[in-house]
Amino acid sequence: MRAADIQDDLTDILVTEEEIHAKLEELAAQVATDYSGKDLLLVGVLKGAVMVMADFSRRLPMNASMDWMAVSSYGASTKSSGVVQIRKDLDTDLHGKHVLIVEDIIDSGLTLSWLLENFESRGAESIEVLALLRKPEAAKVQIDCKYVGFDIPNEFVVGYGLDYAESYRNLRDVAVLAPHVYS
Ligand code: IMP
Ligand code: MG
Q: What are the angstrom distances between the C-alpha of 44 and each of 13, 66, 69, 84?
């Protein structure tokens, strides 16, 4: 669905599908140059990164392996605690691999900071991060993210894989959720 299909649930459209695709095309060219001749493993973080992974990886003009990880932040409330639980681990041995973590969004940065540390202990040759979205004002820890699609304001967004209570992932655009939806 497009933002126009659910207008009442959204306030601003921050990034359209067309803008996302153009940006992923750019990032894919950049990644292919940077990893030329290397054994690249793309690691997607479920479930939010499914759309980014699908669209980015198909634009990548080089071969790459793909694996998935599912994690959840546990602790009180909706806020990321930084304590992460692995729900589904990788199937791949990271030894000697050049890993590119593919993420939907960097909010506090706590999840990624934990993931980066975890991956480093598994003997990867290199580890970098690609995130479609980043909220600079929400950062609690600084993440060294080599490939960023768009910096956005500190608001709760949905679409293009991002959900509110498992809903809105199939929205093609990225938009701010209207406050009345929360209540
Ligand atoms: P962090 O640990 O705070 O960086 O949180 C990262 C995860 O929280 C992301 O991978 C998303 O799954 C989720 N998240 C953060 N911000 C949003 C948002 O605005 N909308 C939907 N999900 C979000
Ligand atoms: Mg995520």
A: 25, 8, 6, 16
Cα of 45 from ligand 2 centre, angstroms: 6
**pLDDT tens digits along 123-147:** 999 999 999 999 999 999 999 999 9
One-letter amino acid for residue 83 of the chain: V
| Strand (E) or helix (H) holding 88 | strand 84-88
CATH code, domain with 147 = 3.40.50.2020
**Residue 45 domain boundaries:** 17-152
Tell me, yes or no, if 107 is annotated catalytic: yes
Does residue 21 lie in a domain region? yes
Q: Tell me, in angstroms, the distance from the centre of ligand 2 to residue 170's CA.
A: 15
Q: Is position 139 within any domain?
A: yes
Which pTM does this prediction carry? Answer: 0.94
Asked whether 130 lines ligand 1 (CB < 6 A), one says no
**Which pLDDT score is estimated for 81?**
66
